[in-house]
Amino acid sequence: MLRPQKIAVALAALLVAPLLTATTATAAPKPSDPPTPSIPQRYLDQPITWSVCSFDAAVKALYPQAPTTNCAKVKVPMDWAHPDAHPDVEVAISYSKATGTSKGLMTTNPGGPGGAGLTLSAALGTDKPQLFSDFDLLGFDPRGFGQSTPLQCVTTAEALNALPVTPDYKERTKLTHQVEVAEAKLYSDACSAKEFGQFVSSQQTVYDMDFLRALFKARQLNFIGYSYGTWLGGWYADTYPSRVGRFVIDSNMDWTHTQWDNVNFDPFSGQRRRDTQLFPWIARHADQIQGLGGTPAQVKARYNGIRASLVTLVKEGESSVRGDNLDGTIYSTIYGNVRFIRATLDILVHDEYTKDPGTAGEIELRHVDRAWARLAPELQAFDTLAAIRARYGVTAAAASTVAATQVDSLKDVLADARATAAKATSGDQPVNLGAIGTTVRCNDTAWNPDPKFYLREADKMARKYDFFGYMNGVPMCAFWPYEPQDRNLDLKGSPRMLMVQGELDPATAYEGALRTHNDTLRATRFVAIDDEGQHGQYVGSASACAEEIGDRFVFTGELPGKDAVCGTSPLPAELSVYPVDGPVDGNAVKLPKTKANPGKVSPLLQQALDTVAAGSLR
């Protein structure tokens, strides 16, 4: 079973030192919970104009018996603590009635912060139709994102044009430090420029969620949340413990600690996933993948060589294809097991580019097609050439092409904004960077206001984790002008929630999830999945054991009597699970081979998960 105190010594040495440094540097008294607001009657009485959702046809194409999903926008206060002090904002919602006897209202969140969730509840139903029969399904885009009133992070062309530039954020030089500080300050100024920026937070979203519960006259709320959605679920349970129904929180953040504690895990957990699963998988398939190596060490050396060549081309002024963008692409893509093929293709595409960059300074159709040809047909079957072409923008995506999402990092946002600024007719011309999810992190918990602290952390992490140790850099939260609306999460009075966690998750470290579980033992049941690294487990899980436990809880209310460890199924195109030394001891529930998941979920659900993964670095 679980051995929380027996994490390998090597892992402890890697992990604990940066975590303690960050924690002590930002130590502060425990926050007090903000008052829970009442809901003014005018919001409950507002007229609602419903129409069939644009994605309803896609839902019914995948599951013809699905109920019709209707969409609308509802008004909520910008600040629930002072409903009359600011203009109202809108939250986009989707809703379908249970086709059978309803067990209540079920809503979801895909992660982020900032992930748009309007389609997620219905998308989960296409993969697990019992959700349609047993629950009234509610989807929503959190305030500030998707089709809800958008957060606007507004700066000027002059400010963008004045930013310094570094060829590679991994190179921890004085120039890189200057760039990170300048960018963080610009992001902070931009996202706090409008009054709405102060109120795009988890606590305000929790108030929105309970308003939606009341709007639909539901006694309780049921919830499936992934990644940041676990943070949202934990905060809801702490705010409204008596209204918690069946909560499955999957791929957990360390939601009893600070946002900084969480991002400080990312370099460690991301590198563990890459080095213990992706690179060994590529090496095991050397006969099906041309030119990346037959051992993990060879694959890593080839990756580093490709990356170095990209940086050289950027420094020579001949390319806009960056090495740090490749890192970010791989980090986001390996969220999903089936996406190992896509991550491999990303490496191959960049390899082809460095061999023949041409004069355009960007990836072209020939690079993508040559990379595709380096995969054996058995691996090509897990993706499509059309999707990969669309992913790199070398052809237009066909209407039938799904999951062609391009990674959308803050660096990409900034590059697009710079291009806009370069065409500006005046320095004071406004440029909207869009809705940056980090705003939520800044509003949620306290951050160290000293940018030098983060520079030291990034420098140290870059040395310790050579893949993406530099990823955090200086956050915009170091300059955030507003006090956080924090909570002291103890979950008093909440019924038990089901926590599901893969051992090798790249985005939400197992160790952080386990720490939160230990903080909330009376209110959570913990299910670990041994040798599993996918981000997002319940519904279409690689583990039949975890899927069964989740189903039993969601559809009958029954939780396991104690914490459990599940086994998993093989990675794509493999027949057995390759064990990884880590914080779970391997004493897992055996997975019946007949129930092994083929690695495929409904395309609508896959697209929703890919979109959130692609925007994970915003």
What would you say this structure looks like, in words?
By secondary structure, this protein is an alpha/beta fold. Among the domains are: 58-150 and 197-258 and 485-616, Alpha/Beta hydrolase fold, catalytic domain (Rossmann fold), CATH 3.40.50; 266-402, no CATH class. It is 40% helix and 10% strand. The protein contains 23 helices and twelve strands. The protein has helices at residues 9-25, 41-44, 56-62, 120-127, 130-134, 157-161, 174-191, 202-215, 228-239, 259-263, 266-284, 296-315, 323-333, 340-355, 365-373, 377-380, 385-391, 410-422, 438-444, 451-464, 510-519, 544-556, 603-614; strands spanning 51-52, 70-76, 89-96, 105-109, 136-140, 154-156, 221-226, 244-250, 430-432, 497-502, 524-529, 564-566. The strands form two sheets. A ten-stranded mixed beta sheet has the order 1-2-3-5-4-7-8-10-11-12, sandwiched between helices. Strand 10 (497-502), helix 21 (510-519) and strand 11 (524-529) form a beta-alpha-beta unit. Helix 12 (296-315) crosses helix 13, helix 13 runs antiparallel to helix 14 and helix 14 (340-355) crosses helix 15 (365-373). The longest helix has 20 residues, at 296-315. Pfam families: Abhydrolase_1 (PF00561), Abhydrolase_4 (PF08386). Residues 1-27 form the signal peptide.
Spell out the key features of this protein.
ten-stranded mixed beta sheet, alpha/beta, 23 helices, Rossmann fold, two-stranded antiparallel ribbon, 618 residues
Name given to the CATH architecture of the domain at 58-150 and 197-258 and 485-616: 3-Layer(aba) Sandwich
Q: Report the structural category.
A: alpha/beta
- Write down how many β-strands occur, each being a DSSP E stretch of 2 or more residues: 12
By CATH, the topology of the domain at 58-150 and 197-258 and 485-616 is: Rossmann fold
Please count the helical segments: 23
Report Rg: 23 Å
The average pLDDT is 91
What would you give as the CATH superfamily of the domain at 58-150 and 197-258 and 485-616? Alpha/Beta hydrolase fold, catalytic domain
CATH class of the domain at 58-150 and 197-258 and 485-616: Alpha Beta
Sheet having the most strands: 10 strands, mixed
Q: Which oligomeric state applies?
A: single chain
Keywords: Hydrolase, Signal
GO molecular function, one term: hydrolase activity
Domain Peptidase S33 tripeptidyl aminopeptidase-like C-terminal: 472-566
Protein name: TAP-like protein
